[in-house]
Every structure is written in C-alpha cells, then in structure tokens.
Amino acid sequence: MSTHTAPVGLLVVGGGPAAHSAAIAYREQGGEGSVLVVSDDDTPPYFRPALTKDHLRGESSEAELLLAPDRPDGVEIRTGRTVGTLSPAEYRARLDDGTTIDYRQCVLATGATPTQLPVPGAENGLYLRYLADARTLHERIGPARSVVVVGSGFIGCEAAVSMVRRGLEVTVCSNERNPQATRLGDAVGDRLAEWLRAEGVRFRSGAEVTGIESTTDRQVVHVRDGDPAGADVVLVAAGITPRAGLAAEAGVPVEQDRVVVDEHMRSTVDGVLAAGDVALARNAAAGRHLAVEHWGEAEAMGRIAGTTAAGGDAVWDSPPGFWTEIGDRVLKYAAWGDGFDEVALATHGDGGFTAWYQRAGLLVGVATHLADDDFERGADLVRRNATSSAGPGTPDTTSPVDVPG
Predict the structure, then answer these.
(1) Which of 36, 49, 373, 392 would bridge with 356, disulfide CB 3.0–4.6 Å?
(2) What is the CA radius of gyration of the chain?
(3) Distance separating alpha carbons of residues 49 and 57, to the nearest angstrom
(4) Mind listing the pLDDT tens digit for each residue in 331-367?
(5) pLDDT level of residue 4 (50, 70, 90 thresholds)
(6) Using one digit for the tens of pLDDT, what is the confidence trace for 200-238?
(7) How far apart (Å, rounded) are the C-alpha atoms in residues 88 and 246?
C-alpha cells in the first residue's frame, strides 16, 4: 500500500559524493523546505576512495569513512531504498516501497555501477564500488594468498598495491601496454608500471582477458595469446557504467548514457538537475559538455547543483582533476579529458615529473608527481585555455621546475 509524504524542498537520488554535496549545499544556501536523500546503498554517504587504499589495507574502519557522522538539520537520509519512477511533470517520485514523494527540486546523483567484463565467467570476479563490495573483498582475501586484478585503471592499481602491502601475491592483467596509457600517454604509463613493480605487483601488459573460470578452490583468468593467471581471488576493475535509466524513463534528455545538464547542473526538464558520474555537464571554461568520473568533480558538481536548486548562482568552470595514491606515490591530474595530440614530459629530482598535454596548440592538461607548483600553475593555465607558447614554455620564476618549451 502506497503512502504519501509531505513535500520536500529537495529530493536527492543517490548516496555518493554528488548526492552528499548537493544536500549540504542546499541547506547552506538557505534552500526552502527539507531535504530527502534516497540511496540504495546500505550505508549513509561515505568516502569511497578509501576502499582501495587505507580501508583495504585495514587502516581505517567503516565508521571513519562516513562523510557526515552528525546529520545536518533538515536532511533525511533513507538508505536501502530506490526511486522506482520519477514524474517531473508532477514533481513527484515513487519509491520501491510504494511511498510517494512530492518535491520542488530534484537532483539526480545516481552515479554508476562497475562495468562487468563481457566474457564468460565474469560473474566469478569481485567488483569494488560500495562498502558492501569491500566487505566481501575483505572476507575473500582474508585467507587468500594470491589475487589477480583485471584492469589497470586507478581503482585496479590502487587496490593492487594495497593488497600487496597486506602480504598477498598480486598480478594485474591489463589490455593496455602500461597503466592508463590511453588516457595519460605512454611516458606517464611507463612510470605507473614502474610504481607497481616497485611495490611487488606483477604487471602483465597486453593481456586481454577472455574468461574467468572458477573451480572449487581456485580461480583462473584466461588471457588471449598468453598463459592463464591463477589466483585465490579475482578482482575486476574494468571501469564504470553510468546509471541514467531513471532519468531516461522519466523523459530527461540523456546522451552518452548520461544526463545532459548545463554549467549550473540544470537539465532542460524543469525542476530536475543532475551531478556526478551520471551527468554530462557543460563546463563554462571549456565551452562544451564533458563526461567526468572523478570523486572531486562529483563533489564539485553536487555543490553546484545544490546551490542552483536553492536559488543561488554557481557555475562549473574548473578543469576536472583528481589525485591518485598508488602506495606512497601520488599522481595529480587536471585536464579537459577529451584528448591530446602531444605530450611534453619534464623530469625532476627524486623521481618527480610533469607531463604537459597539448592539443592543436592549446594546453589541455597537466599530470604531476612531486611537482605541486607545476600542478597548480598547469591547472590554472588549462582553465584559461592557455596556448602552449604562453603556457609551459613561458619562463616562470615562481617555479623551480625546468619546464620544456
């Protein structure tokens, strides 16, 4: 039997960083009415990046990951619930338990799910996205001695090193020549591979996985044109798939499996905004829509969406970026993320480096390790669409780095 609750000022669908930031920003900006966050996760919003790092190493508890242990006034969080249908014309949503919610504004922050490998036995691998996944992974690796990680994205690389530090033998199977070579170029990919090997991770490049076989006490990852890799546990880190189904069914425009929004996170449907992995948002500085899958950008988009919903003025105009920690090494990256045609690499002392990414004469990205000044300067230059001649080639007395011309 359905029930009808009092209208809320803001309905937030999702339980990740974008949802959390949207709810907090709406309250801080004086949005009218209460805030209801509906999440199908079993835990209130928490810091997911830790799932591949300190939490996987056993250095932090679940309680320490919570983003808001003390819930802000006027914000209700319902976990373990989903929004089954959204009716924007009526400003109404129906939950899976039959409850009907009327709202003034709605932020879709439904995020994404791990992409399952399109190979036989893909269901035999573990996938890591939520705390529930982390619990299963911890349980499985407890008595294990070996792990195969399928995929060399940052989730896979971070998890691989964390598990080596727990005393496990870890092999990474990647269809790339080196980790993140497609996104970051061969030079940076080479260094990421060196980081993995320095930590004791076995890295198998060009290893296209064709199937995952599960036996009584062993799992086997089959690789095209290569020997199979056996292990006690297989962790699949093959990317993510945005969860835009609710929006599409409600008639909200979707492209590239993401909800199309402007730089204020508003869709073309009145009262509906989107933020985070599920959003295809226009970046005001880039002058185009970008698909972004970074934790920091999800937080930023959520803040903008919550501020916009509250009647404030906020614009997404910074270049997307992230930090990844692979063991004790940190890579910082800021870029528009939709391609480059040239990479200029500068090496520094103690293994540090800066990669300057250019396309058609424009500086479109920067990646650094142990070069924070370059990162800050590069991110600013990317934001201003600086040309290469006015960017990294320009002498800068505030930076100790010898940047290539």
Answers:
(1) 392
(2) 22
(3) 13
(4) 999 999 888 999 999 999 899 999 999 998 889 999 9
(5) low
(6) 999 999 999 999 999 888 999 999 989 999 999 999 999
(7) 11
